[in-house]
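A.,

Following up on our hallway conversation. Structure tokens first:
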């Protein structure tokens, strides 16, 4: 192999190495995206399982489970409180039937006709 061929071969090897590294980086990126997607699906399934378990449990004497359920309920209450605060600040109420936002002085929903309580 003369010098020129040698240089050419080295350049070829470097290009292949660079290509392989880029390919690996893309593969790693794709696999990380897939991991995140799968973890999201797993979290959703845990959530479904939790909701189902809470529905089925009704009453349990397991203190750990009671604590978690109570924590969820108090966080949900807080979310509802914040949503109501936002609506009040905007001068709006939510129709109890169709859940559309209405003016705070509305007596009957303009979408579904339901009576709106204040
Ligand atoms: Zn309505």
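Then the amino acids I'd put at each of the 118 positions:
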């Amino acid at each position: 192999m003369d010098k020129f061929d040698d240089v050419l071969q080295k350049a070829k090897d470097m290009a292949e190495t660079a290509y392989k590294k880029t390919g690996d980086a893309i593969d790693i990126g794709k696999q990380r995206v897939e991991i995140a997607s799968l973890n999201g699906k797993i979290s959703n399934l845990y959530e479904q399982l939790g909701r189902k378990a809470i529905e089925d449990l009704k009453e349990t004497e397991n203190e750990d489970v009671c604590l978690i359920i109570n924590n969820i309920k108090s966080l949900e209450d807080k979310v509802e409180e914040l949503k109501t605060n936002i609506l009040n600040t905007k001068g709006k109420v939510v129709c109890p039937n169709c859940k559309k936002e209405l003016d705070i002085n509305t007596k009957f929903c303009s979408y579904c006709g339901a009576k709106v309580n204040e």
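The beta strands are 92-94, 101-103. Curious whether your intuition agrees with the design.

B.
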